[in-house]
Amino acid sequence: MKLGNNMTISKIGLGTWALGGGPAFQDYNNHSKSIQTIQESLKQGINLIDTAPGYNFGASEKIVGEAIKESREKYTIITKCGITWEREGAFFNKVGDRSLYKNLTPESISLELFDSLKRLQTDYIDIYMTHWQSVEPFKTPISETMNYLMELKEKGIIRGIGAANVTADDIREYLKYGQLDIIQAKYSILDREVEEEILPLCKENNIVLQAYSPLAMGILSGAVPRDYIAPKGSARYGKKWFEPTNLNNVIDMLDAWKPLCDKYNCSLANLAIAWVLAQGDNVNVLSGSTSPEELIENSKAMEINLDPNDVSMMRTMAEKL
User: Cα–Cα distance between 225 and 232 in angstroms, integer?
Assistant: First the structure.
């Protein structure tokens, strides 16, 4: 699929939040497997790799940089700006004993960019994306942020511009000051809020909508048992769909999907990802695969062409939850 003026990306991208490890992903601190997973992506027809400085304080970017250094030109790399732990800003959250802050001033972005290029072992970034939008008391007008990003693009340091975790009004504001190529938003069959305004707006303006958490943190993979309890402090802890009643209702829905898995000769995860991809030609999906085997399995969703009637039936089932 096309992205911006001069990039072609795969319909599925590899998200590397978990590969960075850290307190929220203690089970995934496997350096060699992370490298193998990223390098497996090209073999599966996936050229899009997503990372961010905020993924375990630069650890994810370092892993990506190591994995791609021999074949840099074959990958399309997304990294982000706006979340820092080294400068002041509006408090975002705390990971372990360190705090993260929101800051989208041009001065802060310039420092972040230098660090990201170093960690990624590259001299350019394909898509530079604002990670979270700025808030008071460090509110930076989108005009200032976007004007600086457009300067970076004109210099060739970045090739495209993205924005994550935005409202429809944010997107309209970005578009006043330059070309917005891609936005990231949470989107799965269990979380369809983007369909109200954001997805139509992206279609109107040739913006790729990149869906993250298409498996709702793994619950739609069918691998989460009915008696699962998210460990305190984990990324799943306290999340809506992992509450016992909701979890069991989702598993009932997945059981009802199994005839479709037989029909398309695919897994539940493939089906869930294919449903998101079926929502528009401008929709891309981030797969948070944490092993080559998971990536190989999830990449199969790109080959599934769901019947519109099945797409509608799956939506109806989800709406009943």
Answer: 17
> Regarding the domain delimited by 2-218+279-289, which CATH topology (the fold level of the hierarchy) does it fall under?
TIM Barrel (3.20.20)
Instruction: Please give the C-alpha separations between residue 177 and each of 81, 144, 153, 306, in angstroms, as whole numbers.
Output: 18, 9, 13, 38
Contact 298, 289 (CB under 8 A): yes
Domain ranges of the chain: 2-218+279-289
CA dist list (Å): 186 to 23, 212, 283 = 22, 5, 12
Q: At which residue do the structure tokens 């001299």 appear?
A: 123
Please check whether residue 189 is in contact with residue 36, taking contact to mean a CB–CB distance below 8 angstroms.
no
Known catalytic membership, residue 124: no
Report d(CA 124, CA 133) in Å as an integer.
23
Lowest mean pLDDT among 21-30, 51-60, 209-218, 299-308: 21-30
Confidence of residue 29 (pLDDT cuts 50, 70, 90): low
159 φ/ψ angles, rounded to the nearest 5 degrees: -105, -20
φ, ψ for residue 122, nearest 5 deg: -145, 165
CB 34 within 8 A of CB 28: yes
Where is 82: in which H helix or E strand? none
Q: Give the count of beta carbons closer than 10 Å to the beta carbon of residue 93.
A: 11
Q: What pTM did the predictor assign? A: 0.93
| CA angle (134, 127, 176) in 5-degree steps | 55
Q: What is the mean pLDDT of residues 147-173?
A: 98
CB within 8 A of 279, min separation 6: which ones? 187, 195, 199
pLDDT tier, 28 (very low <50, low <70, confident <90, very high otherwise): low
Q: 193 in the Ramachandran plot: left (φ > 0), alpha (ψ -120 to 50) or beta?
A: alpha
Q: Who contacts 157 (Cβ-Cβ below 8 Å, separation ≥6)?
A: 113, 123, 124, 125
Catalytic choice (28, 55, 177, 264): 55
CA dist 287 and 293 (Å) reads 13
